[in-house]
Design goal:
Elements (H helix, E strand, L loop, with lengths): L1 H7 L3 H12 L4 H7 L7 E6 L6 H14 L4 E7 L25 E7 L11 H11 L3 E5 L10 H4 L2 E6 L4 H8 L8 E4 L7 H13 L9 E4 L8 H18 L1 H36 L3 H11 L14 H10 L1
Parallel strand pairs: 1-4, 1-5, 2-3, 2-4, 5-6, 6-7
Helix pairs in contact: 1-2, 2-5, 4-9, 9-10, 10-11
Length: 321
């Protein structure tokens, strides 16, 4: 395969083409050939509410990694256009200073309406960048919410960025994100309410019983680079903890499980949609259709399971017995 040869030769264009193939759903053969070369990169997930300065933080982290002589890959998962399904923020203006750096590879990907904000091919992009030999891979997501928690399954270190003076920050903390954050970043530390947000995070952390790693809390001013050294130190501290505790292997298993689950569910969803078209044409009721679809998947109720019935029918049947 010509693309594979170019990829193994370290041609950046080949990496770009490989990710495009994965996005179009044709990356399986490449991943099979290259999977044995993965597992070496430091993977960092960065999430937080819109407007918190994630792209500025990303740029500052890239700058820090490059100052240490590390090559960097950035996967920016953007909102999708409802019309073209392409990335709306593909220009990544905050990262323009790195566009001409041969040691930095930046890829914007559309979320395509996926619930977690992570594109279906994001995991493939991470694997391909890893196999390409990049030292650090930064995954920046659309925003934050209940379903955004899945970023923790892809990244070794998950950073949650928050900004003072925003009600969004408290909602984020209430949305279950506390349990998946390895590092909290209070960006825009010069804001008058920055210390108040810091106290609120500390207060909410005290309500949880952490076993093992306790999340670090870092204050930054990403536009000036202030606090970025502290943030990088916290990332390295977390990676060292994962390696020393043996949890790094568990993180890799989680990433593997996440990708297998997404691939399997993607195939099942496409098959389900095809089956539904025929059931709609048949004019049957939803419960009969559900049973027939399950049968087409070779899924049969286990012994003791009730057939699929509406709740009121289930109750009336029980009343007759």
């Amino acid at each position: 395969m010509d693309l594979l040869r170019q990829f193994e030769a370290g041609t950046p264009r080949a990496l770009a083409r490989a990710i495009s193939r994965a996005e179009s759903g044709h990356g399986a053969e490449l991943i099979r050939h290259l999977y044995g070369k993965t597992g070496r990169a430091m993977t960092i997930g960065l999430t937080g509410p819109p407007g918190v300065g994630k792209s500025t933080l990303s740029s500052a982290l890239v700058r820090k990694a490059r100052s240490l002589g590390k090559t960097v890959g950035v996967v920016s998962v953007d909102p999708s256009s409802p019309f073209s399904h392409g990335a709306l923020l593909g220009d990544r203006i905050r990262l323009t200073e790195h566009f001409t750096d041969s040691g930095v590879f930046i890829r914007s990907m559309a979320s395509r309406g996926h619930l977690g904000g992570l594109a279906g091919a994001t995991a493939d992009a991470v694997l391909l960048m890893d196999a390409f030999g990049l030292d650090v891979i930064l995954i920046e997501t659309v925003g934050v919410g209940q379903s955004e928690i899945e970023i923790a399954e892809l990244a070794q270190t998950t950073i949650v960025a928050l900004q003072p003076g925003s009600g969004d920050s408290i909602q984020v903390l209430k949305a279950g994100i506390m349990e998946v954050a390895d590092i909290f970043v209070v960006n825009k530390k010069d804001h008058p309410m920055a210390n108040q947000l810091k106290r609120e995070i500390r207060s909410m952390m005290e309500m949880l019983d952490f076993t093992g790693w306790v999340p670090e809390l870092v204050m930054t001013q990403a536009t000036s680079g202030e606090g970025i050294d502290d943030l990088w130190a916290a990332i390295e501290k977390h990676v060292a903890y994962l390696q020393q505790s043996g949890e790094m292997d568990e993180k890799r298993r989680e990433a593997f499980t996440h990708q297998v689950r997404q691939l399997a569910l993607g195939h099942l969803q496409r098959k389900l949609e095809r089956e539904l078209q025929s059931e709609i044409a048949a004019g049957v009721d939803p419960y009969a259709a559900a049973e027939r679809v399950l049968q087409s998947f070779s899924v049969t109720p286990e012994r003791g399971d009730e057939p699929i019935r509406p709740p009121h029918v289930r109750a009336s049947v029980k009343g007759l017995m």
